[in-house]
Amino acid sequence: MQQSVSRQDFDQWMVPVYLPASFVPVRAEGSTLWDQNNKDYIDFAGGIAVNALGHAHPDLQQALQQQAARLWHTGNGYTNEPILRLAKQLIDATFAERVFFCNSGAEANEAALKLARKYAHDHGGPQKSGIVAFNNAFHGRTLFTVSAGGQPAYSKDFAPLPGEIQHAVFNDLESAAALINDQTCAVIVEPIQGEGGVVPAEPAFLRGLRELCDRHNALLIFDEVQTGVGRTGSLYAYMHYGVTPDVLSTAKALGGGFPIGAMLTTDKFAASMGVGTHGTTYGGNPLAGAVAGKVMELINRSDVMDGVGLRHRWFIDGLNAINQRLHLFKEIRGLGLLIGCVLNEDFSGKAKQFNLAAAEHGLMVLIAGANVVRFAPSLVISEQEVKEGLARFERACEVVVRGAQV
């Protein structure tokens, strides 16, 4: 008999690095979840842009169950069929010629940064080790990636941090150019800053970074952990922008909810990472490979990509209608189904209040800093779920507005 558990047990038993919602989800289907009290919630959070095909997708269930009956894990001393097939899917669909598999976005970015340092040391010497990243970026929570991330709140308590990482202003090419030189080994950038407020890069900014990296023989790394696998309406956001990186990190939606990450690169750069230079025990396991292979098969289709654009319009139209009535947002921005509503001065710093009010009204949303309410739903969310979710969001917003007027 299973032990009964509650949200209060989290506060007793878990290391307190999270402050989870007051309810505990127990089952889900599509873009609807139910908690321990059988209350339903529309999911506009998508597991932080992870559940690209919603919850309990029957094809993903089947892929996992079939592989679970065959082979679970062998470690990196062996390879396996599902992960090799997934590697070929990614190579065929992108610029990449080589793939390294891991378990998360942070690990994928860690591998990308290590590759950049290794390649630079091999071809330029140990002094070519500088990394340029951007203010308000987010690249993960390992010590290396949190140092590259441009949010001191996440890194300041863990000093001393890895050195030779500098931060420029996002979307400011002059700021980046002032830092990129012949000692730079890599520039790492998100095509859309997710945690930093859902801020899309300007096309000219990314083109300029590509030119600067070429001029100084530095690797251009695109962190597509949040923007990848259809989120923007292209399989990867670099395709939307027409700027090809040297290295790309991907995770989140790649597994549709099953943990997996990957670093994609070319033969030229992969050659620096010989046997033993990097590794992971669980990375590239058969279960993850089987599920992610099915995710790629289902998402990398024109009808799904077109559907992301259609759903983007549903959200934008609905959010604009709410805003016309309640006057909450000074900007609604993003691409595809990564959307940020920037709160105006009257509600500055209150994104968490909107998040909590939404949950009370049966809706799961995200925040991106204190001033942005973020949406990252399933790429195949139904029109009815969008309509119902937006209706619940409007009711939640009305509660926040009334509270602010008291």
From TrEMBL:
Coiled coil: none annotated. Pfam families: Aminotran_3 (PF00202). Pathway: Amino-acid biosynthesis; L-arginine biosynthesis; N(2)-acetyl-L-ornithine from L-glutamate: step 4/4; Amino-acid biosynthesis; L-lysine biosynthesis via DAP pathway; LL-2,6-diaminopimelate from (S)-tetrahydrodipicolinate (succinylase route): step 2/3. It catalyses: N-succinyl-(2S,6S)-2,6-diaminopimelate + 2-oxoglutarate = (S)-2-succinylamino-6-oxoheptanedioate + L-glutamate; N(2)-acetyl-L-ornithine + 2-oxoglutarate = N-acetyl-L-glutamate 5-semialdehyde + L-glutamate. Pyridoxal 5'-phosphate binds at residues 105-106, 138, 223-226, 281. It is found in: Cytoplasm. Gene3D superfamilies: Aspartate Aminotransferase, domain 1, Type I PLP-dependent aspartate aminotransferase-like (Major domain). Binds 1 pyridoxal phosphate per subunit. Its main location: cytoplasm. InterPro entries: Ac/SucOrn_transaminase_bac (IPR017652), AcOrn/SuccOrn_fam (IPR004636), Aminotrans_3 (IPR005814), Aminotrans_3_PPA_site (IPR049704), Class-III_PLP-dep_AT (IPR050103), PyrdxlP-dep_Trfase (IPR015424), PyrdxlP-dep_Trfase_major (IPR015421), PyrdxlP-dep_Trfase_small (IPR015422). GO terms for biological process: L-arginine biosynthetic process; L-arginine catabolic process; lysine biosynthetic process via diaminopimelate. Keywords: Amino-acid biosynthesis, Aminotransferase, Arginine biosynthesis, Cytoplasm, Lysine biosynthesis, Pyridoxal phosphate, Transferase. It comes from the Bacteria. N(2)-acetyl-L-ornithine binds at residues 141, 280. GO terms for molecular function: identical protein binding; N2-acetyl-L-ornithine:2-oxoglutarate 5-aminotransferase activity; pyridoxal phosphate binding; succinyldiaminopimelate transaminase activity. Its cofactor is pyridoxal 5'-phosphate. GO terms for cellular component: cytoplasm. It is an enzyme of class 2 (transferase). Its EC number is 2.6.1.11, 2.6.1.17. The modification N6-(pyridoxal phosphate)lysine is found at residue 252. Involved in both the arginine and lysine biosynthetic pathways. Homodimer. Belongs to the class-III pyridoxal-phosphate-dependent aminotransferase family. ArgD subfamily. This is Acetylornithine/succinyldiaminopimelate aminotransferase. It comes from Paramixta manurensis. The gene is argD.
